[in-house]
Amino acid sequence: MEHDFKPGDKVRLNSGSPVMTIEDIGKYGMGATKDNAKCVWFDGKKRCEEIFELVTLQHVTDDDDPNIPAVGIARLHRG
Question: What is the Cα 66 distance to its own chain's centre?
């Protein structure tokens, strides 16, 4: 099955999660037959990583990412 994910993409779980970055895509685990995504994110200063099935992920745009400051809004509040 084709997918449109690649390393460096920002994603989150379909059910909700912190914004994560795909570090790698591959067949993880013994006997794996499908590609999975190795995702990384930070919980404060702690680096976290986990393997997820691609069907459980959705892309995150900069507009969806709460860690990206809204430049337009900041300009409005400058006065």
Answer: 13
